[in-house]
Design a protein that fits this description.
alpha+beta, L-fuculose-1-phosphate Aldolase, eight-stranded mixed sheet
């Protein structure tokens, strides 16, 4: 029995296209690391299945039809590829820990990973982009390669009800959204905010402190922007149509 028996075909099709678009976009923007790192999206209407990029292809060549659907035991119930062990453990751990975390992106983006390896970590008060994450970032200490269920569950335990980002110390990041559009928006602005932080800190000059009330107000306004992620993702898809077509096949 395939997942199409349980979910409207057009809804599942759109989920595949959107996740494939996010993976292609990550390659265009330089957020992936070789054939490693992984994105997942809980199958619409199901809490026990999630779409995942297969292990092996470069993200620049991934298509909607290449994605696999995996259950909580690791069985591939739709698609022909295979998953990588750390991908399955991390994403199962996060999806199980917070069922409302429908879309989960894990990357080793250079600036975000650099920030994850610094004392003090991500400063959500430093720039306007960073303020959008204020109060929604958790930190998880490095525990080695996530090749066991316990490590995936430990990462999942770091995810709270309002968490948008988990900074994995000395490792990378986990970004969470309701769908690929929201997760992509958070991934993009997180890397931009971390880039600004690294550049600002590299000057060696004192950093300007923003008053707490302004930080909180900026965070609230940013987090209430429901249209922004969708508009950004549509713009990204148009760029893909020009520079990396074929992801929707």
């Amino acid at each position: 029995m395939t997942i199409a028996d349980h979910t409207q075909v057009d809804v599942l099709r759109q989920a595949r296209v959107d996740l494939a678009a996010a993976l292609r976009a990550a390659a265009v923007y330089g957020y992936n690391e070789g054939i490693d790192n992984h994105f997942s999206y809980a199958v619409p209407g199901r809490d026990d299945l999630f779409l995942l990029n297969p292990y092996g292809p470069d993200w620049s060549e991934l298509r909607a039809s290449d994605l696999i659907a995996v259950d909580g035991e690791g069985a591939v119930v739709d698609g022909d590829g295979e998953w990588e062990i750390t991908a399955f453990m991390i994403h199962r751990g996060v999806h199980r820990a917070r069922p409302t975390a429908r879309c989960v992106f894990h990357t080793h983006m250079p600036y975000a990973t650099a920030v994850s390896a610094t004392e003090g970590g991500f400063d959500t008060t430093l720039s306007q982009a960073a303020m959008g994450f204020h109060g929604r970032v958790e930190t998880c200490a490095y525990g080695g390669l996530a090749r066991a269920a316990e490590e995936g569950d430990r990462m999942g335990a770091a995810v709270g009800d309002d968490t948008s980002v988990v900074m994995l110390e000395n490792h990378g990041v986990i970004v969470i959204g309701n769908d690929p559009a929201e997760a992509w928006s958070r991934l993009y602005f997180l890397e931009r905010a971390c880039q600004v932080q690294i550049l600002a800190q590299s000057t060696g000059r004192p950093l300007i402190a923003v008053p707490d009330d302004i930080v909180r107000h900026t965070a609230e306004l940013t987090q209430r922007d429901e249209a922004g992620p969708g508009k950004l993702f549509e713009a990204v898809k148009r760029r893909l149509d020009r520079e990396s077509p074929g992801y929707a096949v």
